[in-house]
Inverse folding.
C-alpha cells in the first residue's frame, strides 16, 4: 500500500514534469520574454527535482522490500536446514542409545559360551564370530555417529551437497556366496570375484573376501575397524562410502590375488 502511494505520487510528478517541459518549449518557440522563460525553466527544474526525489525514494523502498524478501527466504531456508539437521542428529543419538544394548546382547551371547563348563568347537567358533561382529558393529556405530553429526553441521551451514552425497554407483552389495570381513583399506586394492574385477579405494570400508584377508593384513594393506590407527584414519578420511572405484590404471593399486599367488608359490618353494 505505501509503495503504491509513492508510485502514484511519482507518476503524477512525472506528468507535471512533462507538462512543464511542454510549456517551456511553447514559450521558447513563441519567442517569449526572458523573464517568462526564466520562470518557466525554474518551474520545470523544481518539478524535475521533485520527481527525482520521488524516484530515489521509490528505488530505496523497492530495495528494502527486496532485502526483506531475501531475509525471509534465508530464514525459511535456515529453518528447513535446521529441521533436517535435527533429524540427522536425532538419528545419531538413537544409534548411540541402541549401540550399548547391541553390545550387551552380543556380550551375553559370548559369555553363554565362554562361561559354560561344556566345550564344543562349534560353540567356540560361534562366540568368536559374535565377538568380532560386536567389535566391528560398535566401531562402525561410532563412525556413523561422527559422520552423521558432521553432516548435521554441514547441513546447518547450507552445504547440502556434502551433507547428502549420492551413493557411489560402483558400490555393490556383497555376494552372498562369498564369506566376507568388513575391513578398512590402507591402500587402493583390486581382486577378482567370479571373473569380475573388484576395486576399492584407499581409506574405505569394504567387505573383503576372507580368503584374501590374511595376505592383505600381512602386507599392511588393510586393518581391522577396532585398530587404533583405523579410528584416526576414519576421522581424517571418513568411511569412504561415497568414493568411486580407483582408476584401473592407478599405479598404486595392489593386486591381492597376485600377492596371494606369490605367497603360495613361495611357501611351496620352501617346502620343496
Amino acid at each position: 500500500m505505501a509503495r503504491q502511494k509513492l508510485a502514484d505520487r511519482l507518476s503524477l510528478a512525472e506528468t507535471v514534469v512533462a507538462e512543464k517541459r511542454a510549456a517551456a518549449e511553447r514559450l521558447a518557440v513563441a519567442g517569449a520574454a526572458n523573464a517568462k522563460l526564466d520562470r518557466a525553466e525554474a518551474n520545470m527544474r523544481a518539478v524535475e527535482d521533485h520527481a527525482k526525489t520521488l524516484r530515489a525514494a521509490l528505488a530505496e523502498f523497492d530495495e528494502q522490500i527486496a532485502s526483506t524478501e531475501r531475509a525471509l527466504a534465508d530464514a525459511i531456508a535456515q529453518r528447513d536446514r535446521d529441521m533436517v539437521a535435527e533429524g540427522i542428529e536425532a538419528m545419531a543419538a538413537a544409534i548411540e542409545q541402541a549401540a550399548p544394548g547391541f553390545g550387551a546382547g552380543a556380550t551375553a551371547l559370548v559369555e553363554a559360551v565362554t562361561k559354560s563348563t561344556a566345550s564344543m568347537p562349534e560353540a567356540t567358533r560361534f562366540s568368536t564370530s559374535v565377538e568380532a561382529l560386536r567389535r566391528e558393529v560398535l566401531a562402525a556405530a561410532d563412525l556413523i555417529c561422527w559422520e552423521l553429526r558432521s553432516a548435521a553441521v554441514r547441513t546447518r551451514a547450507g552445504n547440502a551437497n556434502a551433507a547428502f552425497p549420492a551413493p557411489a554407483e560402483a558400490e555393490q552389495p556383497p555376494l552372498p556366496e562369498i564369506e566376507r570381513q568388513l575391513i578398512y583399506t590402507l591402500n587402493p586394492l583390486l581382486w577378482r570375484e567370479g571373473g569380475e574385477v573388484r576395486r576399492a579405494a584407499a581409506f574405505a570400508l569394504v567387505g573383503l573376501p576372507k580368503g584374501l584377508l590374511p595376505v592383505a593384513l600381512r602386507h599392511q594393506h588393510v586393518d581391522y575397524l577396532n585398530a587404533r590407527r583405523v579410528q584416526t584414519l576414519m576421522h581424517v578420511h571418513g568411511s569412504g562410502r561415497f568414493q568411486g572405484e580407483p582408476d584401473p590404471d592407478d599405479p598404486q593399486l595392489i593386486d591381492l590375488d597376485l600377492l596371494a599367488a606369490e605367497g603360495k608359490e613361495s611357501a611351496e618353494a620352501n617346502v620343496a
